[in-house]
Design a protein that fits this description.
single chain, alpha+beta, five-stranded mixed sheet, three-stranded antiparallel sheet, 15 helices, about 40% helix, elongated
Length: about 425
């Protein structure tokens, strides 16, 4: 047996001086006998301690604690590390002592007047648990992903910054009318390609054009969500989904229709001079209607129009003599920057309503303003102008855009082949 003397400890160390031993088999012994060794029993704290250990509850905290010349701490008998610090001023503070990564730390929770004992004990238990679990794997906290409606409301301005104002307005309309009812309540990372495919199938028939317009908008939303790490990179559910094939609207003016529209323009010139001038410039330049309608005087630099922005960026529109004559004859309103101002001078004149009525007078109710641009390209091809040159005149950014007029060039080549073969047949005495 080891001697009891070698196990005695200093005050506050829970040695024999701090308590008494309880035998391990206290239930079975008839009378209590102090064990010969501390290994034969349990050491219980003594109620007659020096005040440095106690059950730290509200009653103990409200007591008048003795003031000493230096700060001292009363430790809790139940929660190791939880204590009450008493300063020489008499103020008492809840504290917790812990060992974090090999270093001793002491954290003050608050004054006893401000923090009750129950809350202080809970905070101490939480801090001790965090230190005990430090370094162990933690469950990843997953934030609730926003719905697509919330995402659009929060980030639409950032997304639309990359679009032109007219494109942003049209895309917002597509979201509100075609997309929000289907995807608005779905969470951003939960939309699957099968959801988009199901929507595509629902649009089959009369709504195919709406699907074709809205699909790029939906794809842009998910692309931005990937950039914000709201979706896994490369998980855009719109990727690879085809649009519905649409019949290309190819409408070209014939020589007879050119004469008919010219006569109608001369008849309407008195009542609508600005609209007539716009249509004539479209015929002579092949420009887009917005490029001529929104024209400003500062951009008119004969023999060209220098537009700072267009559908494909900055653009130069070359003016022939007829187009220059039209611009030279236009009146200029003082203080108004627009070449074709409205009645108030606050913006450009509105052409669409006038055009709807005008084309009926030409017996061409199916003629769109954009068809004048197609007709310009058609005429250029008939005059053997190369496709590359036509692309520059029209302001096409990519050669593929101009390539849709290539079949018109085939007609010119076929006609030339017929004329050549006819001449050769006549020369060799063969009937054509």
């Amino acid at each position: 047996m080891k001697s009891m003397a070698i196990l005695s400890k200093t005050s506050g160390s829970l040695g024999y001086a701090d308590g008494h031993l309880l035998p391990r088999n206290a239930v079975e012994t008839a009378a209590y006998e102090a064990p010969e060794s501390p290994f034969d029993g349990y050491l219980l704290p003594s109620p007659d301690l020096d005040g440095r250990h106690a059950l730290l509850d509200g009653n103990f905290a409200r007591r008048d604690h003795p003031v000493q010349s230096s700060e001292y701490t009363v430790w809790d008998t139940e929660l190791v590390g939880f204590g009450l610090r008493v300063r020489p001023t008499g103020k008492a503070f809840w504290t917790v002592r812990l060992r974090h990564r090999g270093k001793q730390r002491r954290v003050t929770i608050g004054r006893t007047e401000d923090v009750d004992a129950v809350f202080a004990r809970a905070q101490a238990r939480r801090l001790l648990a965090e230190v005990a679990l430090d370094g162990l794997p933690k469950r990843k906290v997953v934030k609730a992903a926003p719905t697509l409606t919330t995402f659009v409301e929060s980030h639409w301005t950032d997304i639309a910054r990359y679009w032109k104002p007219s494109t942003a307005k049209r895309n917002l309309q597509a979201w509100r009318c075609d997309l929000s009812a289907v995807f608005g309540e779905m969470r951003v990372p939960e939309v699957l390609p099968s959801d988009v495919l199901r929507w595509r199938d629902d649009c089959a028939g009369s709504d195919e054009a709406k699907y074709n317009r809205a699909l790029p908008v939906l794809a842009s939303l998910f692309k931005y969500a990937e950039a914000l790490h709201l979706r896994r990179k490369g998980s855009n559910p719109c990727r690879g989904l085809p649009r519905y094939p649409r019949d290309a609207k190819e409408r070209y003016l014939s020589p007879l229709e050119y004469r008919r529209i010219g006569a109608a323009l001369r008849a309407a010139e008195v009542k609508a001079p600005a609209q007539v001038a716009i249509i004539r410039l479209l015929l002579y330049t092949g420009a887009r209607v917005g490029e001529i309608r929104d024209l400003r005087w500062e951009w008119v630099q004969p023999p060209r129009l220098s537009l700072p922005d267009s559908k494909t960026g900055p653009k130069t529109i070359w003016l022939n003599s007829q187009a220059q004559a039209i611009l030279a004859d236009l009146p200029r309103r003082e203080g108004c920057p627009f070449v074709f101002p409205n009645s108030a001078g606050s913006g450009p004149v509105w052409v669409a309503p006038w055009w709807t009525a005008f084309r009926r007078t030409c017996s061409m109710p199916d003629l769109r303003i954009h068809d004048l641009r197609h007709s310009f390209a058609s005429t250029a091809i008939m005059d053997n102008v190369p496709l590359a040159t036509i692309g520059k005149l029209l302001g096409h950014l990519l050669p593929e855009t101009t390539a849709k007029y290539a079949h018109l060039a085939d007609d010119v080549i076929a006609d030339a082949a017929r004329r050549i073969s006819g001449s050769l047949a006549q020369a060799i005495g063969v009937s054509a």
